[in-house]
Structure formats: C-alpha cells, structure tokens
User: Fold these one by one.
Assistant:
Number 1:
Amino acid sequence: MKKSVWSMCGMCTVRCPIRVEVEGNTVKWLEGNQHILKGALCAKGSAGPALVADKERPQQPLIRRGGRGAGRWEAVSWEFALDYIADKLKTIIERHGPEAIMASSRGGPFQDLVKAFTHAMGSPNYSNHDSACGRNVHHASISLFGLGRKGFIYDIKNAKHLVLFGRNILSSLRPAEVNQVMDMLDKGGKLTYVDVRQTLTGIKATNFFQVRPGTDYALALALIHEIIKAEGYDAEFVERYTTGFDELAYFVENYSAEWAAKECGIKAKDIHELVGQLIADRPKVIFHPGWMLSRYNDSFYASRALNCLNALMGNIEVEGGLVFAKGAGDCGGKGPRALNELSPKPTAKRADGVGDVYKQFEKGPGLFHLFYKAMATAKPYPIKGIICVRHDPFACFPDPQAQKEALDNCDLIVSVDTHYSEFGWYSDVILPESTYLERDSMIAQQKGMKPRLIMRNKAVEPQADTLDLYSIIKGLATRLGLDQYFPHNTMQELWAWQLEPTGFTLADFEKKGFVEYADKPVMFDREKLDGKFKTPSGKIEIISQKLDEWGFPSWKPYVSPPKPPKGQYRLVFGRSPLHSHSHTINNPLLNEMMPENTLWINTREAGKMGVSEGDFVDVISGDVTSVVTAKLTDFIHPEAVYTVHGFGRQIPLQTRAYHAGMSDQKLMKGQLQNMDPVGGGLNLCETFITVRKSSKNHQRKVEL
Amino acid sequence: MNTYTLYLNSKRCIGCHGCVVHCKANKELPVGPILCEISHEPLKSVRGVPKTEFKFRSCYHCEDPFCVTICPTQAMKKREDGIVYVDVPKCIGCMACAGACPWGIPQHNPETNKAVKCDYCMDRLDAGLQPACVTKCTTHALKLVAMKEI
Ligand code: SF4
Ligand code: SF4
Ligand code: SF4
Ligand code: SF4
C-alpha cells in the first residue's frame, strides 16, 4: 500500500515543504509541496533517501574508548548512552553548577527543544552556529530597523531590481526564492550582482561588478552618496520614518562613485549607470543585506549600508520591496506553544558574555565562538560539558585545532547528529538522530506575508538504531529529574499541546501539509508604520541610539582592505547547489555529482605560478597544508582564491568524503576569535594563504 | 512517430543539477549511471557580464534508433508514442545498445547488470504524471512538450 506523507525536507536548513510517497518502509518518491513549490526541489532534496539508506552514518549510539579523535568507538544501547551522559552531566552540575553546561543546535524554527532543555537544566548557555553566518546581518538590521534579519520578507518576484552583494542566491539556494528571482527576471526585472568572482547567480545579471575582495562597503557607500547627490531617494519616506539622514549625507560626502571605482577596481561610469537604474526602478528595488555575511571586518557596516539603501529606496511595506514578516498575532491569531515556556528562566549570566560584557549582541543564541574563550580561561566561569545538536562547530568555525584545545577542558562532549560530524568524531558520545525522513519534528510557525504553521511528519520508520530529538531530550531530562518540563509522552501529545492556543488541530494539516493564518498576503498600512520599527525612537535609525550608547559609530569610516603579500591570496569560500556545507559531502548521490572541491585561481595569477588547469596546488596557512586541484578562471579577482566550503573531511568511516578536497576553515589559522566587534560575526574572509604548484604533480611514473 | 520532447528554458535554468539527481532518485539508480546531463559552454563576457547558458541532454528517442536495431534480445524497444525504452526482464546487459548509439546514451546499471536509459519516465506518463526531472526541476525550467502529429 502506498501512503502519502506531508513533511519537510531536512537536507539543508531551508526546510522546504515536501510530500513523500512511501511503500512498505521505503521512500518511493518525494517532491516539493505542490501548494507552495509546485513540485520543485533541489538536488540535495532528492538525495534524502540516499541518506536514509547510507550505512556510513552512525547506526547506533557510540561511546569513545580511545583518546579524543582517535576513532575507537564502542557501540552501546540507548539506555547505556543516555545513562552515561546523564551521570556525567550530574557530576558537572554538582561540581560547577548547571551553567557549566552549554548546548547548541541548528538555527531556525526548531531551536525550542534544545533551548528548553538547556534552560531546564538551569543553564543560560544555549547557542548556535550563527556567529559564523548571519549575526552581522542580524545585528545590522536591528540597529537600523529594530527588527532582526528575519523581520522582513523580500518580495522579489514583484521587484524591478534586485541588488546582491555576494549573495549567491541561485547557488546557496532556496527553491521558493530562486523561483521568485527567475519570475522577476522573466518579467523584465534587473539583477545587479557584486562579488569577487562570477557565479551561477552572476551569469543571469544585468549588471555585474567584480570587485576587489573586502570592498563591498565602499561600493555601498558610493551608492548612498550618488543617490543622495542625485536626490534620487524617497524623500517623503525618509522624512517620515527615519532619523539621522543628514548625518549620513555628511558622512558619505567623500565616498563618490569615482572614489569607489578606484577602490573596488570597477568603472565609475557603470556605478553611475546603476544609480540611474535604481532611481528609475524605485521603490521596487531590493538590496539584499546579505545572508552569510561573516566575511570581512566591515561586513556589519556593509550590511547596514545595504539595508540603509533599502530605506532610501522607500521600499518598506511595498509590493516588490521589503515587507514586514507577519506572525499569527498580525492576523488576530495565536502562535503555537513552545517548550521553553515551561522551563525556568536561567538566572546566571551567559558564559559568552553576551548581554553583559557584550551589550551590543542580542542574547538569543549568543556567540558560539566566545564559549571557547570561557572553556580555555574558565572565565567568567568554567564550561565543562557541551552538547551539539545537528551542529558541527569544526566544520563551521575557523581553526578546528584551536577549538580542540579549548574543548580539552571539557569533561563531556556530546554530538547528536544524523551523520558523522567532524565535531562528533572528537566527542565522547555520538547519539545518532533519525534522519528527517525518519522523525517527527515539533510544529513551528513560519512568519511571512501569509504566516503559517509547518510540521514534519515521519515518512518511514528508522532504518537503524536511531531516535528522534524529542525522545533523546526527554530521555536525558527524565534521567536528570527534569521530566516535568517535557511532560508529553508522544509527539501526538506534544503537537496537540502546541496547537491548543492556535485553534488549529492536526486534522487541519491533512489537506496541504501546513496551515495558514491568512488567505491573502497581509500588508500594513504604509501610512501608519509608526511603532513598527522596534528601535528606541520607533523609526529607522540611520544613526542608532543604541550603537551610540554602547560606544560604536553608526557609520565606520571606510578603511581600504590590505592587499595580500606576494605569493599569497585572500581565501574566500562559498557554496555549490549540490551540497549543504559539510553535511552532504558523503551522501552517495551528491558525492557522485560533486566528489571534491577545487581552488579557483585567476588565470593570470596561475600563469605566474606555472599552474595549469587541473594541476595540484599546495595551499598553506601556518602549519596547515592542503593539496587540491586548481581550477583556472578569468572571472575571479586576482587577489582572491575561492573554494566550496565543506570538503576536506577527515572521518575515516565516511569513505567517500575522506580527505576529498580541501577545508577552508582548517586554513583559517588563528582566526577563531577574529570577530566583528559590533556585528558579532566572525571575519571568515580575512585569511591570506600561500598557494604554490604542488610537488604532487608527478613528472614521471614508473611501473615495473 | 515521436510524440514527446524535453525542452529546457535555458533562461530559467540555473545549472543546479537537480534534474540529474531527481532522475536518479526516481529510478533508484546506484552510483554510476547518469541518464540526463546539464552542460554549458565556458563563460564569455557579454556587455561586461560573463555569461553562459545551460543545455539539457537525455536520450533523443530517435526516429530510427540504432540501439533498438542492434539489441540482440529485443529488449530495447520503441513505443507507439516514440519512447525508446528498455524492457528490463529481457535485457542481458551486453551494452551493444550503448555502442550503437551515436552518443553512448544507454548506461549500465551495475546493481542489476542491465541497461538503463531515459524513458521519459513512461510509468509516470502513463499514470498521468510528468517525468521526474520536469516535476521537480528547481526552477520549473524543464517541460515535456507533446508535439502535434502532422
Ligand atoms: S533547498 Fe533543497 S536541500 Fe534544502 S530544504 Fe529545500 S529541497 Fe531540501
Ligand atoms: S533542475 Fe532545472 S534548473 Fe536545475 S539544472 Fe536541471 S533543468 Fe536546470
Ligand atoms: S539511446 Fe541513442 S540511439 Fe537509442 S534512441 Fe536514445 S539517442 Fe537514439
Ligand atoms: S524523463 Fe525520466 S528517465 Fe528521462 S531524464 Fe527525465 S527523469 Fe530521467
């Protein structure tokens, strides 16, 4: 008998809604939810069943028997593994207090469970990966709009012009968004793409600017300058809803198109032409403020400038612009319950200092990398236990070696994941979570123009001895005497409890796989946006009161990025549409499509080194050397070399991914704490590396 | 008479290779056989923008398919509607079809030791559905076009 299950893809954190057809206990077909995606999925989405079937993922709980990272594991039962962890946690709590334990998970709608568990134990130290991802964008958005980066929806399909600074939107892809971009282009909309290299996105662009690495902020400032000079901004909107415009006009006075052209290595005439287009297309112009903008040491300000351009365009709450993300409350409804509501609010200060030493950062997940400082120095207090749920810090933060040294101060390291992670390999216990096709997840609210509730239903029974996250957390909580915070015995009970205030029932999900709070897009009255911006003044603060208060400038004078010394290059990284960072490298189908990454080198620079297409090159940073295949291209800035993130894995049990390609984060030596002091994001593109032709390019081969 | 062809709107295609994986997943293929391909020419600067466009290729479902003629067991067949497909139980995996096809389209499935190729997902077509690659193309760039009979 075939059954059809509404669910949610889990191959990356986009979490596309899907419909799965199952026969027996096997997935026969899956596709994007017809009601939202009209069937569309990306390559990774279709490779989900290959993940389920893959024997190269942990098949049962594992406890480390050799030294950390030695790879000697003992397979144990869930009872044993959970008892073991609970005992260690109890000891840590007795000796150092509950705040000595930290936990982190993937960001997004499912943080609740891990956060609730952390708080139930009495620790404030919940975190996630975001300091290597969107923190700069998030904080920049808060400083301007009083709303985080998810506070707005980009109505791309109705825009006339989309401007992307390094946001490789068609490769680091979200299918729904990609279709919006393609629809916009089909309707004659323009795309402006700015990057240090040409990408799958840039090839669709109307305007393309290949800039010198680290100069995004310069170009953004010049756009502000020229738009103000031409009086091409929405004066009425600016007057009504912003503060600090005059200071901005004064600040950008010297940042002309001619100046930026020199700084970025592009043509002033092209900047002027772009400015003309933007003014003509306004207000339906969207400046993407960046997704993963943990790159340069002025990325916070670059993102702030891009969002400020949105304000100048007057594109807020207009069709084809930035639309406030509406929640249940905006539709007169109520959101679902969260488990964290049951847990006591922790009283201790965060060990990462966020909200205390670092007032400028939002508490939420804090900043993961700062916990390493606490581990290493025992200040403000020791961190002795760490649980990472579907989060691989070694794959996302710089310098795993430095991370390991800090972690060696911990008495307990636990990794909960569906696949072997680099962090898991170094941990004490690996708890294998069921894959997304084998597990239920909590109901979550997705804000938008039409807010909805989304859920993941298990499509097939687990094929190995794995558990869903609720069972894992509840198992631990029960052992710690915290079961009152996780009172639900089944997912059905939990869902029903979550849904109670919403007025929806599980049956309401049967028709489409999700429920909506509104039939039509909800738009606020653009004449009455007062109070919608949650800044101290209730306006868009071009000059931010909060930044002022904390002693940071709202606009940082531009500093030209250093050029790499001779023989060195700036290491930049990005994504391919075929892999989700490091998670999918060992997936049989995706590995077949893209088994390794390469190093993109500017053709002329490669010529100087005597490197030809396909040669091996050594990539060196401190005591780390990687060998990787060179890919030559004319369309990358000569100061930069580029690679796809996620490769160079060193887990022997992942035979397909083992040592395939190179790892950018391992080459970021000494960069673990290189943080943007205002945005909190790590500066992940501030590493210079040496590249040379490798001695691995054999001249002769002898076979006897 | 050929009834169908797969058309790629290259303006919409983003080269994500989703179609290739959608196809493989639907046909439950192991590592090895790949039934459709996405390719592109090297980038060329067009008015300051380095550009290229993608091409999609699967079996051409030829009018007079060499693969059918050469097949020693009549496993390779052409349907009334023009679809050239492998009648799996009859296939002995000799791969003569691949040798005869000017483009080497038929692939060897190491798991079954049989030939496998694009059949426009005829089981899906017969059930009133679209091919896997068309249904799930990330950008809806692929279409199965039914050609009018002349
Ligand atoms: S983008 Fe692809 S991998 Fe990510 S959730 Fe959507 S279909 Fe899955
Ligand atoms: S899935 Fe669609 S967009 Fe992606 S490569 Fe294939 S045809 Fe192009
Ligand atoms: S396999 Fe080759 S010869 Fe046979 S129909 Fe396809 S393209 Fe023609
Ligand atoms: S029609 Fe079917 S068999 Fe042919 S390429 Fe598309 S998915 Fe593959």
Number 2:
Amino acid sequence: MFESKSGILWVGGLGFFAFAFLSNGLLPMLMVTEPEKTAEQMVNSNVMYQFEELSRRYPESFAEHVGEPTEQRCADMLRLGRQIYIGEGCWHCHSQFVRPVSNESQRWGKVAFPEEFHNELQRPVMFGTRRVGPDLSREGGRRGNDWQAVHLFKPKMVSSDSVMPEYPWFFDGSPDKPNLRGFAVITYIQWLGSWLESYPYYEELDELQQAEDY
Amino acid sequence: MITSAGLVDHSDHEKLVISQLVRWHFLAALLFLTISMLAGILMALQLVHWNPLNGIELLAAGRWRMIHTNAVAYGFLANAFLGALHWSVPRLTLRPVASKLVSYFIFYAWQAVVLATAVGIIVGPSFQTAGWVADLSRQWGIAFSLGAQGLEWGETPFWVDPIALVGLALVAYNFMIPISKSNTPMYVTLWYFIAAFVWTFLTYAMGNLLPEYTVSGANAGAIGGLFIHDLVGLFVTPLGWGLMYYFVPILLKKPIWSHGLSLVGFWGLAFFYPLNGIHHFLYTPIPMFLQYGAVVATVAVELVVTTVIVNFVGTLWGEGKTFVTNLPIRYFYTGMIMYFITCTQCAMQVTLTFQKLIHFTDWVVGHAHLVMFGVFSLWIFGMMTYLFPRVLQRQWYSSNLAEWHYWLSTIGVGIMALDLILGGLFQGYYWASLQPWDVSVNGSQPFWITRVFAGLMMFGGLLCFLYNLWMTYRSPVTAPVPVEQPVAKAAT
Ligand code: HEM
C-alpha cells in the first residue's frame, strides 16, 4: 500500500484529506445550528442612528447616492460596504476578532463570541490574519461619521502618523461629499460591534488612566 | 528506465519532454514573480510613508497587496511547478504527457486565470457600485463581489474559480495518465506528485467555494484556516519536495540516503499536514478542542519534517563540497536549511503561549517570506539555474551574475525574515502594553524600512537573473548541455 499508486491515491490523497476535512471542517460547520441571519436582521438601532446621522450630515450627497435612510437601504449599504471592505483589502490590515489574551479586551471591549459571526455579512468570516491597524470588530460608534469620512479620505489629516492608504475614490472630490462607496463603507464600519449592548469608550479610559498616572 | 537493476539508455528522454513548455512556463513564472515583487515593494513603501502612488485608485496598496500574494502563488509557483513537472514526469514514467494539446491549452488557460484574477482584484472593486451589478445581485438573490473574495489566497474572483478548477483537473489528468500507465516501481517523487494533484484540486475547490457559499460564522472560519494552510501544505510543499527528491540525487549522482525515511516523510506529511489548518485562528470562537488538535498536529508535522531533512543531509554526506561548487545544489540545500528553521519556528509559534504575543504581528509575515521565498523560491531558482541551459542549449552567459542572484536572494530574505520576526515581537509587546496604536506603528518603522531594503536586495537578485537569462538567450547555441542521468533507486 505504502508505495502503490492506489494506496497513495486513495489513502493518502483522498482518504487523509477527507479525514481532515470531516474532522476539522465539516464537524465545526455542523456545530452551527441556528440559521444564518440576513443583513436586514443585523440592522439595529445603533447602526440606524449612525445611518440617519449620515443622511442629516451630508443631505445632498446622501439623497443623490443612497436615497432615503430606511432600514432596507441600511442593509443594502452593509452588503455593499462589506464587499468594498473586502475588495480594497482592508481586512489584510485590520482584524475582526478580539482575543481573550494580551489585554485585548481592555483595548477593544468584549471578547469575540460565536453568535456575533453567524450572519450573512460574515460569510466568508472576516477574522483577518494581520493587524497593521487596530481591530475593527468594536469600531461602530467609536468615532463620528465625520471623523470616519475625513479619515478615509486622507488618514493623515486626523491621525498624523497613520500608514493607512488614502481612499479619495470614496468621495466626490472632498471629504464632505461621500459617494455611494463612501456611504457604504462608513455604514459598514459603524455597524461593526453595534450589536453589543454598550460601547467601551477607550479614549476616556485612556485619559482616566493617564490622569491616574500623574 | 529506472529499475533497481541500474542504468539504461536515456537518450530517448529528450523526445518525451515538450521542452518549449518548460521554457514558457518558466518565463511566465518569472514575469509574475517580477510583478509580485513590485507589488510587495509598493505595499512596503506604503507602510513607511513613502508610497508615491497613494490615492491612485488602480494602484491602491490594499489591492496590490492581494496581487502580491496571488501572483506569487498562482503566477509564479504554479507556473514554475508546471514547467518542472513537464520536465520530470515524462522522464520518471518514460511516457509523454497524456496530450500535448492539453498541455498547451493548460498553459494558455492558466495564464488567463492568473491575469483574470489580477484584473478582477484591481478593477473589480471599481465596478462594484455599477447599476448592472446591483441588478444581477437582485435577480440571482446573491450579493456578489466582482473583485477579490474575502479569504486570503482565495481572493480569486468568483467568476474565475470554475476556469481555475477546470485547469487544475486537466493538469491532474495530463500528468496522471503517464504515471498510471508506467509499470515500473514508483519513485518517491511520483508519490508526492500523485498526492499533490488530488490535494490541489480538492483544496482549491474547498477554499473557494465553501466559505463563500455555505455557512457563515466562526466555525466556518475553520474551513478558511484549512484552506490557507492546505494551499501551502498540500499544493506547494508536496510538489516542492517531490522535485527535491528528483533533482538532488540526479545532481549528486547518488541515490537518496534512506528509502525508509522517504516513506516516513511522505506518509507523515500526508496524514498530519491536512490537520493543521485551524492553527491560523487560535483564540477565535472556534471550539477549543479543535484548536488543541491543530496545535498537536502541527508539532507532529515538525517531527516528520526533521526526518526528511535528515534524509537529505544523509544524501549530501560525503559530497559536502558540491554545496560550494554546484549552484543548484547550493540553492536546494540553502532552501532546506531555511525549511528546517521555518519549521522549528512553526513548532514554537503554534503554541498558545507564543500565539498570545505574535499573532497578527509581522512575526507571521517574516515566517511567510522565509518559507515562500527562502525555501520554495530558492528551490525554483535552483531548478531554473539547472534547467535553462538544458532547454535553451546554451551555457549561462555569466556565472558571476548567477552567483549574485544567489547571494542577493539569500541574504535579502535572511535579513527580511530576521527583521520582521524581531519587529513582530516588538509589535506584540506594544499592543499588550495598551499603548496607543500609533506607538506600535511608529515603533515598527525601523523594521519596515529595513524590510524595504531587504526587498530591494531580493528584487536586485531577480534583475541579475533576468539580465543573465536575456543575455543567454541572445548568445549562440553551444553544444547540448549534458543532462545528468537518474540513479538507481535506493535499496530499501
Ligand atoms: C521584493 C520583495 C518583497 C517585498 C518588499 C515584500 C513585501 C511584502 C509586504 C509589505 C507584505 C504585507 C505584509 C503585511 O501585511 O504586513 C507581504 C506579504 C506577503 N508576501 Fe511578500 N514581499 C516580497 C517578496 C515576496 C515573495 C517573493 C514571496 C513569495 C515567494 C512573498 C510572499 C508573501 C506572502 C505569502 C505574504 C502574506 C503574509 C501574511 O499574510 O502573513 N513575498 N510581502
């Protein structure tokens, strides 16, 4: 068997692969029992608050590119925003899971839990493998829409040492005129973590910490 | 014929090999390697604030980072391996490939796949908001991306996947037919090849279809991990080692040291490697028992790897001077040394203790370059250095340039890997100490700047090689360069 064609083909090639696939792939897949949530079901009041805020802050651009700030439009924006997040390779610089180690829960808040990934917008799951920039799974509501817009347009404007690339093509010429892609990405960012009951306010924590140090 | 009885006449080998395809695949490989390296340099420049192209949509660093990894895997490695397969399989089986036509078709189809992937990744996102995309999505009830898909190395746009799968199936068919027809005992290389054909197809299908179209969520991430890992472990690794088992004994003119160890190495890899995938996502919400399983299997792989390395060191034993005098052998064994280092590193970094610190940092990027460039690319450079004179019927234009290529590549990747591994440790400590994020970005600058220069060294090495090749092409045909003969199979 060890040196025969059939042994190598059936046992080594197919058999061992199948064994690994069943035990390491299919088994965990089958452990997911609840049905996958749709983007519509993932829209919540926190992200709607930001979505409506976008429509008030950039009324003309919003009306032109997005239309009405309805829940359906919000879900559409989440889908599109996720596609752009993938297409632009944001996930090669940003992770989306908070680990239970290395003080990560102090920096970003609640440790990642399985239920938050069981939805359409995490197919394929956006765990990421590299952090050049910070984890984004708790980013929603952390910054205002205007901050996010300016940051995407030219990160150095708000974060002087940033190495994040510029994305002027999310805008019609200036950071106060997001286009469809801009709105979609900002909505998507504001959605990340919006399902949690409360946001951790890191900046405040930082300041408190520093105040204590002095 | 390769029989345990000894050597027979090999003059007919020439006729079995389509040497034009060996050449074409190698040239395509070098073209994509050049593109990939330029993309890597672009991303490296972005990270040190020196990107002159920042803000140009079609040259976006984020998109080109995906070109970097995809061009390397599917453009460079796949093409180089196809070239080497065309050279070695007919010689090992004494039969031509199943069909010449299919071979040529694969060549063109595969370049189309790589180019389509690149075009999809680069321009796909720009068209994502076009009206017809929205219409189609609504009609079919699926939200599809024109550009990259969201899995590392599975970025290949969904509309390229079917073509790539057909291509891979044809590759398997084309090379499996001569293998199945041959009735001599199979040499080690062919074990690896058979397994690799099956695995590559299955891995590609699994990674590109399941995570995108089946279940979502953390447990489905396990499939993603399996894919990232299997692409390296079940496509690149078996083909790479298979070719080492082929070329090393031929160049050293002696059989592999121990047939028994070859068996241990192959079957150990076949069993343990596919079980490693989840080690890419430790500390995620994937069930802990699976994570522990992956850690144990990974450590087991390192033990298997050690047996393979011992086997090759045993083969070199007594011929140590060829390491100095014979450039392809030097490439091969340098790669093996780096392989051993990478695998030792892997056995450490896979432990949960290490993971706390180094996951998500440049440590991993250092590891990736050490194995992809330090091992597999060096092996491929060695094969090319050996084969080009034989398919071109010309001696290398300059052995000096060939030496420069070796040294720039080796030292370049050595610096890059050391630098990034060290930088990764710093990043891990910056993060864990809860300093503002900027501190880690600024603290990484010295490492990232060093990486740019290490990358330029590696690229300089490639330029030496390309210039040397160009001049070799232009020089007149010399007497045919002798092809070394295979040696008798090792006694069991
Ligand atoms: C000119 C030389 C090169 C430079 C400057 C370079 C630079 C880079 C950069 C900047 C990244 C992104 C790292 C990050 O996300 O932080 C990267 C990733 C990567 N590169 Fe290269 N690279 C070079 C050559 C190569 C070659 C020749 C290969 C393979 C044969 C390679 C394989 C990879 C892989 C596999 C990754 C993904 C790492 C990961 O996600 O962990 N690189 N490279």
